[in-house]
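Rotation project, supervised by the postdoc (A.L.). Task for the rotation student: set up a whole-complex structure prediction and record inputs and outputs verbatim in this book. Inputs entered:
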Amino acid sequence: MRKIKKIKIKVNGKVRYISNNFRMIDLVKNLKIPMKKVAIELNQEIIDKKNINKINLKKNDKIEIVHFIGGG
Amino acid sequence: MEEVSLKVDKLVIAKKNFNSRLIVGTGKYKNMSECAKAIKLSGAEIVTVAVRRVNITNKKKPLLMDYIDPKKITYLPNTAGCFNSKEALRTLRLAREIGGWKLVKLEVLGDKENLFPDMLETLNSTEILAKEGFKVMVYCNDDPLMAKRLENSGAEAIMPLAAPIGSGLGILNKVNIQIIRKQTRLPLIIDAGLGQASDATIAMELGCDGVLVNTAIAKAKKPFSMAVAFKNAVIAGRQSFNSGRIEKNLMGNPSSPIKGII
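Outputs recorded:
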């Protein structure tokens, strides 16, 4: 059986290992992220949520997923 | 004969009408349901919210949007916790991406102890955000000159502090607030530092268009009761302002007629 190669990325400051064929959509599905309630940054650039199925994740990508919480 | 107006005197921000002149922060509550109930009791139609990382390890953590419906209550994304223009711009651009929020509150802090705003970074950010199409409500110090500069840079509302954030000291410089009131036609909202309901009444009587309160409600011994107190205080203050107060006199002026005295 062929072994799937894993790559290292960072999501919200935490290291994660994902398959090297992961797209952004696979990551958000994997994390069960409610897409309507978040915004996503890839390497400090905001991504258009409509394009998450077209974005292939690469080694050392830094992803930030944010939402609204209580604040003053 | 004077007719008492029962018509709601609406607050207009960025061409949007609001019945309530009280804006409430959603931080510092014990939990989400307490926050949601306090907001309901306060009658607020605008609430400030913060942008933070999603907790990806605990997916069951309750979400603010599940408790406060953004279709019913206007979310005002805030840059609280940002200490420079770069962080503030990043935060608000992300907030806009979450769901198209263009009406935002800009708050760039300059000092971790007193939490006073860094006005140079604030001014710079206001200009950039306005150019990007944001409607920016700007937290600022109570300096009339800076308030004017913010207005000239495209601010949608001026939000001077009453006192340091969370201090509960009430309005420290009424004169400056009145000067800012006189010079601007933009919505003027007192933000930060209120401690009790009467502070909100004073703000409204000075001619402010609204007040923003968080700690004074969230950290009161009885937050629900304080939410109602602030609601009534803002209504009373606005009505008092619209009623035209009497002149102040140094000497007394009897309330009963002198004529016919026995």
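Student's summary: The interface with chain A takes residues 25-29, 32, 35, 48-54, 56-57, 59, 63-65, 75, 77-78, 80-81, 90, 93-99, 165-166, 192, 214-215 of chain B (CB under 8 Å).
Supervisor addendum: The first helix of chain B runs from residue 32 to 42.
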